[in-house]
Fold Cytochrome c domain-containing protein.
Amino acid sequence: MRTPRWMPRTAALLALALATGACTEKPPGGTDTPDGGETCAPANRNDEIRLGLAPACEGCHLSGNKPFFASLTAFENGLVYDERYVKRGDPENSVLVQLLEATASGSYRQMPLGQRYEEMVASGHVSLTIDQVKAWIRELPPPPERLEVPDPEAFTVRRLSAEEMVVSLMDQLGLTLEDFVSTSDPNWRNKAYVVNGGKLFVWPGDWSPGISNEYVSDSRSIERFDALGGGNSLVYRKKDVGFGPSAAQTLVQMSQAWCARAVDKKSNTAVLRYVTLADTTAKNPEAVQKNLRSLYLRMLGQPPSDAEAKQLFEQVYLPLEAQSTRLGWIGVCASLIRHPLWLTY
């Protein structure tokens, strides 16, 4: 399947957007990274601690309902000056320290969940020690009269999570669980899903009903979800907030397989809204163009410009239509799923 010329450029923009703001760790009093890599200069002492803790903590706390490491503002507002976590001048009674030492009470005894913090220090994954965190809390100045508030006009971007990809893609393509798993048992929803062959099913390993690795008959379904960057609370796997080669490769396969499933599904107008597979450019050019623009709007949430529609038609649909209209629409559908506007939020 040919890749349109705009895909490499937009993919590069996506990588740049997702990488913006990512910093390598530079602990308090430290020097530049040994390998000569760049570091983000901390704005103040609090920012030094944020960057020092980030490699251990940002996997779970870069987004979501507790995005402490999304920015210095989020770190100070949500963690540093919240006495539920940090008691200024009293590190021993600060929950942050207790979590790092794996002595906290409550639902979570330690953070991060999968490995003790001191082990991460010993392995070199982080270099900010617990003693340095304690020293910072002892010397922590009082908060300013008014903490900085987020700028509502600031531009932010993040990649879709694996969960969002699975749920939104099923919805956009008019697919349901029944399109992937066997429904011969009348009680199939309450039992382990039996994946029908060749469906390239993608499913989290900790979603109910039946939260276990035996929940889905095809173990690759869960492996694909992990490759997309999905987490798994049962095995303490964090979400991957980046978008690396494994996620890209899985999404390519998923987009092609699921678009094919949507095109082949009877009475499904998610992809073929204004055309049928009998409509070709030669027979019904207006319907083909209308359907292409409609699909672009459905998948990306905005209408294409004339130049974008022309490029998508000439570089993706038309070459594949020479083989079959089915391949043409699968190609258009799959290319839109790999578009940065679909991948980001």
About this structure: The CA atoms of residues 55 and 126 lie 6 Å apart.
